[in-house]
Queue: 3 jobs
Job 1
Amino acid sequence: MRPYDERLEHLLARAAKVFAEKGYHSTTMRDLAAASGMSLAGMYYYVRGKEALLALVQERCFARVLAGAEQAIAAATDPVERVQAFIRHHVTFFAANLAEMKVLSHEANSLTAERHRKVNAIKRRYVDLLEGLLRDMASDEPRAERGAAAYALFGMMNWIYNWYDPAGEIDPDRLAGLIARIFVGGFAEARSTVQGG
Amino acid sequence: MRPYDERLEHLLARAAKVFAEKGYHSTTMRDLAAASGMSLAGMYYYVRGKEALLALVQERCFARVLAGAEQAIAAATDPVERVQAFIRHHVTFFAANLAEMKVLSHEANSLTAERHRKVNAIKRRYVDLLEGLLRDMASDEPRAERGAAAYALFGMMNWIYNWYDPAGEIDPDRLAGLIARIFVGGFAEARSTVQGG
DNA sequence: TCACAATTCGAACAAGCGTTCGAACTCATG
DNA sequence: CATGAGTTCGAACGCTTGTTCGAATTGTGA
């Protein structure tokens, strides 16, 4: 890896951390300079500006999530198992990349039109991927319910950044199992039991 | 209601809307002046500053949610029904107060220390309320699982602001029913079925 | 050692921000 | 009409922000 790429990678990693801690808008380029060990002006040799930095963090992270999910679900053929694999991958990836995923989840609307569209295109593919899995798992469910259920699941998984403590007593695998149990058990299996309630 | 209180209420309502649309940090006092029909300086007669405005929006909204939830669960005695009532109230309130609830969910960390603590105190009570309900509903569940499940549920419910369209085909009651079905069905009833998976 | 490209950065700039201040206006009351 | 408290706001201030620029420094191949 060329020194240039290493420096850029380093900058992106530190930026993700600071964005996650202070929020994108509250983070100044001077904060990022301090966190990366570069000078204020020096960062502009690697990146066009503050927003380009956020876009790079988001695009790279999202691309990894998408690719990882596709690979994770490929291992199973049973519809329920594929959904479980999707959940397990998303949650463990989230826990292993807390800063980047928080930036992805919480700063989704901090990009301006052009860059926003580019990230949204990846997001669309990712959402479509899950909705396809849900169609296979619960084909008799109304379309509106399936769509809402997909977002409910994303809610459970993406909300993690608001409370999850990696040093706490529940590890990522256990958390993934819990969320998978809630979702699959409640959405695919508890139809007649509770629905009418 | 005195004219003063009406003007303040008006300002808070408009501010919540703009905060929800553009995000707190991207909103300028000039934006709020334009949205409220007041002048830039005029707003300072009603409010100490921008952050005080955010704090007021959050505190008032959160107090209403908490009070409403306490009232909603009081109507039932069965543990499962109480959890369902909590969910139904939270989701329908969220849908009926989208702007305020988005500001509450998305700008939770936009307040500085003092005001942050004040809002967090209300949040603590609200989270405790749900955790108490879960204890009654699933007393044999490990404590760590119950805690994580509470946050998973909040994730499903609070994520709403990222995707829910009030003009869409799924109305708040139906959405509340779906989320309640997923959570209760998956957490309280699908223990042995899926867990080992 | 030289020349040239790659990289770094101190210093400054223009723009936008939240906030303040004092004067002006409104209006019920005597 | 006169008074004074309640309310409004134009104009300005001081500060922070993202970004730029040109010079200085470092690295590299001949």
Job 2
Amino acid sequence: MNINTSEERLKARNIQPTAMRLRVLTYLVESQAAISLSDLEKKFSQADRTTLFRTLKTYLEHGLVHQINDASGTTKYALCAENCTCTYPDDIHLHFYCSSCEQTYCFPHLGIPEFDLPENFKPARGNFVITGQCSSCPA
Amino acid sequence: MNINTSEERLKARNIQPTAMRLRVLTYLVESQAAISLSDLEKKFSQADRTTLFRTLKTYLEHGLVHQINDASGTTKYALCAENCTCTYPDDIHLHFYCSSCEQTYCFPHLGIPEFDLPENFKPARGNFVITGQCSSCPA
DNA sequence: TGATATTTGCACTATTGTTGCATGGATCTG
DNA sequence: CAGATCCATGCAACAATAGTGCAAATATCA
């Protein structure tokens, strides 16, 4: 199955495709970087903050996006791959946070190795971010 | 050189060892887990929030502690090793955030591999956290 | 169509992170 | 030791982020 439209993409995750949700999803698709709630607020200034907040929460709960906690301190969100379950180690990848332009990139091709955790530590999810300077920012 | 007392530990990082800073450092040494600003507030309720905030900031700037952004969303801090410079990849290690008890553990023995970043992405620091359930929390 | 469930918007509240300024104590210099 | 200077602390704000309760609007279902 190949998901072409945003509407199908939401339905596949059991999320009702409302107008607002479709627009937020389109924005996520278009964005190269992970976005924060305040990014959404700026983009959709006509919409209510709460709606955007809950849209992201819904996406998160249904596994449409994953959450990234970078050095900026504010939570960011990025689209998951089609069949992603956001579980460590298989579905987790590396992120890069540029401290100059404050963009957060997804590197889906850079997976995470399996760490040898101490006994009885049960992993479920992962948050892996390298901070530095991205290729668009001058040294 | 072996740093025995908290006072020597602060001086080695060029931090004036005031009474408050010594007490915060002692608390950090005693804590097994990484702590947040609000943890400090609870522990030192007589002190001003700002002082505690700036104490952590000073520690961070002088490389005495490193910053961890886990899935809790709030920034946490943990003591660095003696000669740590907090730079990726050498001085970065894995952390574990327990979503049940909300404790954040340092695993200094679990280092971070060097990732093959895209061209002109210059790494400086790293934030690596696995979320799950710790050995103290029942399944 | 009417009943029901879900989504959205508004009004708050809480928490975290942060700054400016005044005070007080430590340190330095003559 | 006196005076000047520097730094740490405390107080009072403020800003941004995160989250909740409720009522109105909208969609869905029988």
Job 3
Amino acid sequence: MKQGLLTGRQREVLRYRKQGLTQQQIADIIHTSKANVCTIEKAAYDNIEKAKETLEFLYTLDATHLCTIKIGTDLFDAVGEIYGEAEKLRIKVRYDSINLINRLKEANPGKFKGRFVREDVEVYINEDGELCFG
Amino acid sequence: MKQGLLTGRQREVLRYRKQGLTQQQIADIIHTSKANVCTIEKAAYDNIEKAKETLEFLYTLDATHLCTIKIGTDLFDAVGEIYGEAEKLRIKVRYDSINLINRLKEANPGKFKGRFVREDVEVYINEDGELCFG
DNA sequence: AGGCGGTTAACGAAAACTGTTTAAGTTATT
DNA sequence: AATAACTTAAACAGTTTTCGTTAACCGCCT
């Protein structure tokens, strides 16, 4: 039923969508509700997103540990720490402060509350200055 | 904890492995057994494989439905059917009989028993003669 | 033979995922 | 304004993953 991340249902829906069918038309064909088709389609795109992120991680696996942002840290201090540590390694970070904060928040939304870090965040950097968080 | 397909544990193990540590060394660091490190690493590679397959599917999403191999069909008849239908569409299949059978079996091992099909198999083809099965 | 690196199988518990339905909400088109 | 297309959220039951343990197994090396 499953190849890769996508269930049989999800592949089915994506194919019909590629053919230009509406969610209602697909629902009729596969004998379910249009709401369900919507859910399945959404789940499919979530899975595709996950697949991309996974391979993305592989490409940044050559990164080395830069520092740990401790719980309770202010985001602006975290940025300073990251720049400081990167400088020690003589690596130029690929992001300015603003983008760095955005990347931090996007990487793990649950770990941040306003300006503060709610859980330790590991920071990794590769020789190109690309960052990733774990 | 999860980004993409990989759990935090899995990313952790992959990073340490990239640094050249043995499973036993990693087990000591993360306080578990080497058997567990092995399992986690294997699961990580399974997930990476899944991610690749998922994106692979996306690239073949432009395929159109070619035919349905009905349950109980002999594999060799299935091959004939696929060639026949492809010819109707004036598309040259990218595989000879042998490779076609291999691709069929690999695509969904559970659906085949010896020379026979145990479950309906949908066959799709794109304009390059590339096949995929659902 | 014994140590080391790696793998596998079996099993339990907790967590996450899947397909559905129902119901309420957009947005776009006519 | 009305309809169609689409989105979202909550809740459910069933299934699958994940992490961990224990114990056994293989190949290689000195």
